[in-house]
Design a protein that fits this description.
9% strand, 5 helices, 35% helix, two-stranded antiparallel sheet, elongated
Length: 183
């Protein structure tokens, strides 16, 4: 048998061990608290060190207490049975699903889940034409044809569709700059 460990988790910043029933801190921003990410910090200064990297607009450290070793082992055993990873425990107890209870899935409207643009959506110009003409004239002294805005709008739509697909594959409802493909 393996020797029991007194370590619950490691700090995501300084990598020091955090014991059971020890106070720790988590970031208030939801992207830092997802099941896959689950960032935990041993001190407020370790939490503060991740802010410049993550560039949160508004965030604070939330104080939590690590679970007991018995509780943690039960969570691990339950996760091994379901094939998922448990979330870090907090002071608040989360409601558990009844055994065998079906999970509810909230479906989005068909237009929001379709891979391509809606057919009934007008093909409007997405580019501010006056700014486009100013930029081209300032960069090169050239004039701009009327058809350029339509062609650029098609490129923008294509980039947006790719960014939407990337955000959807990451299970997010927000398209971010990292979703936009680089040219």
């Amino acid at each position: 048998m393996t020797e029991p460990t007194a370590r619950w988790r490691r700090c995501n910043n300084c990598k020091s061990d955090m014991g059971f029933e020890q106070t720790y801190w988590v970031c208030s921003v939801s992207t830092c608290n997802r099941k896959r990410t689950g960032l935990v910090f041993c001190t407020v200064s370790c939490w503060d060190a991740h802010l410049p990297l993550m560039r949160h607009r508004e965030a604070w450290a939330e104080e939590r207490v690590a679970p007991t070793e018995k509780t943690w082992r039960m969570e691990q055993a339950a996760a091994a049975g379901t094939g998922s990873t448990p979330r870090p425990s907090s002071r608040k107890a989360e409601p558990a699903l009844a055994a065998g209870a079906p999970r509810r899935r909230i479906a989005r409207p068909a237009a929001a889940t379709s891979a391509g643009p809606a057919d009934d959506m007008p093909r409007e110009i997405l580019i501010v034409v006056s700014r486009l003409k100013e930029y081209i004239r300032a960069q090169s002294g050239f004039n701009t044809a009327e058809s350029v805005a339509g062609a650029l709008s098609e490129h923008v739509r294509d980039l947006c569709d790719r960014a939407i697909a990337q955000a959807r594959s990451d299970e997010r409802r927000t398209v971010m700059d990292r979703d936009v493909p680089r040219l």
